[in-house]
Write a structure and sequence with these properties.
- The longest helix has 22 residues.
- By secondary structure, this protein is of the alpha/beta class.
- Helix content is 40%, strand content 17%.
- Helix 1 packs across helix 7 and helix 2 crosses helix 4.
- The strands form 4 sheets. A 7-stranded parallel sheet has the order 3-2-1-4-5-6-11, with helices on both faces.
- The chain has 2 domains: 200 residues, Rossmann fold (3-Layer(aba) Sandwich), CATH 3.40.50.720; 103 residues, UDP-galactose 4-epimerase, domain 1 (Alpha-Beta Complex).
């Protein structure tokens, strides 16, 4: 089986590549000329990387015609919610245009792969209390430019399924974290700061945003297994929530991480980490994907956060050994927000 992963160098893409290789697949990944490959350095001898700018239809056509994949996991795009507030037009144009070019390239090539469109729980946005846990039929009320872009991708997937009979399965993953999570995301930023304090690189202060926000959290390794099963066993045209069905506040996440450290820092709210509008509660209902694919989460949040903290401890040790002082450059002030 040939598998194409757009955005393979990202947090989720790298874990999905590992999972695909474990399933015996030939794994191909699209990268841009400026893509950072840190997440997949350990896989470069096992996956085939092809340079492609998905914003360019000719480049995208060449990618699809070269690989002729059986499975396509479309993960590429601008994936950080706060960035979408500062660059809304770029977020919308990048996320939507990349997907249109990919779907048109599939049509032009004449292949018949199964295609995953990676949506997000952010699509649900403003959720009423009586709507929790959130099922796939819940209204979409996006509260950020990023969320609007994901709603557009989601509906484009449905439209191309109905209009051209492309075998598209849409997924809406709720929050997920784990090793290699980018430092701008809240759980990873907390872990990075704690590891920096332990290493003596930071003052004993944890900078935070909205700790009251509640999120349905899963391990990234469970999520990529869910992506695979949804594409393998799911019904084209359908949408599937991937979530743990359990809510955790950002304060609880921070407390778990701190419980795994000897550090006892002060916790300080940084106003720069607060969003213009935030989704207060996100907790999903994954009954549909469990029933139709057999997927369910297997990794506890405690293990996920321990693995995440150990990832940052190891990374900082490596950086120090190599003479780098990445943390010192910003004082741990990356705007992690959930």
């Amino acid at each position: 089986m040939r598998v194409l992963i757009t955005g393979i160098t990202g947090f989720v893409g790298s874990h999905l590549a590992e999972y695909g290789l474990g399933q015996g697949a030939e794994v191909y990944g699209s990268i841009r000329w400026r893509s950072k490959t840190d997440n997949i350095l350990h896989l470069t001898h096992r996956v085939q990387l092809l340079e492609c700018d998905l914003r360019d239809p000719f480049s995208t056509n060449h990618l699809v015609a070269t690989v002729r994949p059986d499975f396509i996991f479309h993960l590429a795009g601008q994936s950080f919610v706060p960035t979408s507030w500062h660059a809304p037009s770029e977020t919308l144009s990048t996320n939507v245009l990349c997907q249109v070019n990919l779907l048109e390239a599939i049509r032009a090539t004449g292949i018949d792969p199964r295609i995953q469109v990676a949506g997000s729980s952010e699509e649900y946005g403003l959720v009423e209390e009586h709507e929790i846990p959130i099922a796939e039929i819940n209204p979409l009320r996006p509260l950020s430019p990023y969320a609007v872009s994901k709603v557009t991708q989601d509906l484009l997937g449905y439209q191309y399924y109905k209009s051209y009979d492309l075998k598209i399965i849409r997924t809406r993953a709720f929050n997920h974290t784990g090793p290699r999570r980018g430092e701008v995301f809240a759980s990873s930023n907390f872990a990075r700061q704690i590891a920096g304090i332990e290493a003596g690189l930071l003052e004993p202060v944890i900078l935070v945003g909205n700790l009251k926000a509640k999120r349905d959290l899963s391990d990234v390794r469970d999520i990529v297994r869910g992506y695979w099963l949804a594409l393998e066993r799911g019904r084209p045209g359908e949408v599937y929530n991937l979530c743990s069905q359990t809510m955790w506040s950002m304060e609880e996440v921070l407390d778990i991480l701190l419980s795994k450290s000897q550090a006892r820092p002060r916790v300080v709210v940084d106003s720069h980490r607060l969003r213009p509008s935030d989704v207060p509660v996100l907790c999903g209902d994954s009954t549909k994907v469990r029933r139709e694919t057999g997927w369910h989460p297997e990794i506890s949040l405690d293990r996920t956060l321990e693995d995440l903290l150990n990832y940052w401890r190891e990374k900082l040790t490596t950086d120090i050994t190599g003479g780098s002082r990445l943390l010192a450059s910003d004082g741990g002030r990356a705007r992690g927000r959930g």
